[in-house]
């Protein structure tokens, strides 16, 4: 009889370990395994059971590989079937909750998600929907990843097409994981355990791995069965990659890092392809979390520590600091680190972790068991806090811990040579970090919509096919058809599942390949080409910019999305797109983006566009090189979906396609009689054609960015002595009170003033940015009656004597779009949107229908002011808005919408479509123009953060309302416009011009620096670049008056802090440039690198915290939050955003940055820090300002004409009483603001002489 080999004996020993530590708690009927029978009897966690299945799967593969006898084959079969049973039981548990999957796909509500644990006895629920942190996207994703890997290894888990349909829906369930805050791998969300969901990197990484694995595995039956393939959209994979790249090594807002990240940078997910990012994350975890007994989960984790209150689930914020250095250590993560070393083929490191692991195992019942965690005993807490790692710990929690025990079995199998790393990764996911493919060229097909368009292009030396000339084997369809097809994928009447939600975007990567349907090949045009999604695509320059950025996006991301074959993009040209006369308006800001359609096509044909390598040919020439996916349905076909919709390829609607409800009648006999009435209506409507901003909004009232040469009379520069109430009086040409008091859905009026450099009003208290409001309240504010008010009363009388029939008749009498807009707008306000005008004696012609037609006509004629007004009145939400918000948020850029410092509402985490809709209505429900303009700005920012991420490196929160104000003020300054003209032009500029202005501001350039000749030069943005632009010797003071240098008593080390300031390339100094830079940077919320971490250090050393603008940033925040925690950055931003003056905000930021260097400034001195009151940062700025004034008074500079004169009446009106010349000083240098701030810090905190 042949004896067992040594390896067989060792393998049998592992089999006994598995049976005694894992399978002993398995239910014989359901196959599910309970982890903690003492505290949670019959509770089976999804995550724990999946990892148990991993251990059984690994042992199954080891027996199959090295079987000595038939008995070994029998054990292998038993283990394989047991593994399949666990996975199928988990699938059954989830399928019982199919209605939750359907609801969560649509709304992502946390109480409508799949449960995190089920009953081992019934496969049913064990706790209520709201009684546990069930939303754990990583657990569902881990299940799908494991299912794909096991299927690839030869196990068949999926039994029928119902399973396939449900798994397809699980893909839809998790594919939004990159923007879905969940409770994370530890089930409690935010580390305060207060049930706050977060965006967790570990969840996103697992989602990415699951999507990639299901995309790679092929059919789930393993036999090529029709309809058993799971379809995954590559755009969702790429979104996960972008989010991970921006988050790692951070786990979430409240966790700087987390040991759970080990499972996504290594086994089992292998979700990160960037080797440097993997190394950084691993090193961060090892250096900050690894101890003798394992890893801490995260810093200040109080779970099961000796000082945790076991009777209270949630922590008080201030008590988190007491958990630091005594967090429990988990041996589980030694298993992860060891497997990672084995996969990296680092045997020496694997040996080290193996010995560490052996030291923490428990021997119970003759079997090695991995405990849940090790704690510091209560009697050793004080000593451990003094020296972390100095005290011995004791095991606690469940033993064996199912998750950790399973990972230990895998470690043993690989370490002892029973399995190679490749056998635990059949899909070869581990190789992605080593295999780097160069960018793939983008194949582009240009098609003409008609023969006429083809001829126009041919005349311009561009030869393309028409749609009709394409081979019949190819079908060109819009992306909307693909969205309808996806609604059918995964559809199941039995389970009431509907497939992919229709409101989700179809990404560009998904439409960039062939889809085989029977004997035909379908190619879908990109979704951004559909003009029905928003009015932005009616701007040809925006469309051309989309061509450039989207082709560049495909070029850079295609290979990382794991797609075989090359991308193919089909662009259809319509006649309206070639109408150059209506494409380019005056005032284009960024000529580099100013490309005609023909010029863009020629650039594509040349081989490069926007840095992307492209090749342009006919579609049949790309057949053999393009990526192909097969669309199959096991029980139906999708031909009906293709036939139901007539493809529409026009990017711009033609005027002739509009409904003929608004037209001119031949009879003009009553025109003279109605002219006065129409004038009143037009004035009433015009009051809505601007932006709503409160007259008391200090953010704009203090934003005085006009340094152009004054062209007004001296009287015009003197501020008129009027009361605050008089300052907010609306102009006289307002609509009558009855109109707005009774029927206007938009409330508003009020005015603000635009100032020059000296604070003098350039235009008086006009409606720079005004909107609708009650005339009655405005009239009550007026102290006297002016001739204009008499005209207003005439307007009231004209409107009072007008009937609705008169308005409808006037509507019939005009074909001018502006006149039609005023009349329809009046009807909307007077009678509401559902009023039937019975225009042309036809019924059903409601005001809403007419407003929709006005919107369509305005888009066609590119009248952007009317487009924004009608879109806002109709409350149209641009389809790209949710995607743009997500692009910003997942790259850690938060938003606020609404009126700055008044009614701003933050958007700090991804929102569902319905949540985003509610937020926009709350923020701009009374201002139709801002409602639309804010959406355009967010969409432009979302596009720029994806294509130009470096522009945003120093920003954390973007305030949309303040950006609107900056754009308006900059427009007034550079074009020397009055307030009303600036407001009108801001609303009238094209979306492309708006995006170009945003690009210029974000890039750190003043708008007048961007000319059609120079274009936009790439340069570093933000405060760092400002400090290197202009050397102090060319400052305003030296350019205005000769000065003699004086000896400063600043210490040498303080001067060293200002090193590195380079000279400006230019010789001329522009007066006011630093003040404007500070105001723009303050409006954009720019901060220096590592600013928040340095503020954390500063706050921690002041026992009473810091007082900024009267608000205390308390020392207790450092007890709750760690140094690089995003929650702390949010708290700092919350305080800074209370400062209404952007230039003062920037000075405070500079002062805070210098306070972080307090020790370097004082050298060996011990700073004098008060223990009974907060440190007043504002007093430091005031002290620096006084030192600046005294210094310049001694040098007899221009400052003696204002603040240095000693005459209170001559003081300049800089924000917060700070001299405007101090704001206008360069940050660094001998005469820079940093120089004076350092002196102030030394005076306040240094030793008294």
Give a verbal description of the structure.
The protein is of the alpha/beta class. 43% of the residues lie in helices and 6% in strands. The protein contains 47 helices and 23 strands. Strands 9, 10, 14, 15 and 16 form a 5-stranded mixed beta sheet that branches. Helix 15 links the parallel strand 9 (442-448) and strand 10 (465-466). The longest helix is centred in the N-terminal third of the chain and has 26 residues, at 70-95. The radius of gyration is 34 Å and the shape is globular.
Question: Helix count, per DSSP?
Answer: 47
Stretches where pLDDT falls below 50 for ≥5 residues? 581-594, 643-660, 663-669, 692-798, 1009-1070
Calculate Rg over CA atoms: 34 Å
Strand content range: 5-15%
**Structure class:** alpha/beta
Mean pLDDT over the full residue set:
79
The N- and C-terminal alpha carbons lie at a distance of 98 Å
Tally of extended strands? 23
Specify the biggest β-sheet. 5 strands, mixed
Helix content: 40-55%
Shape: globular
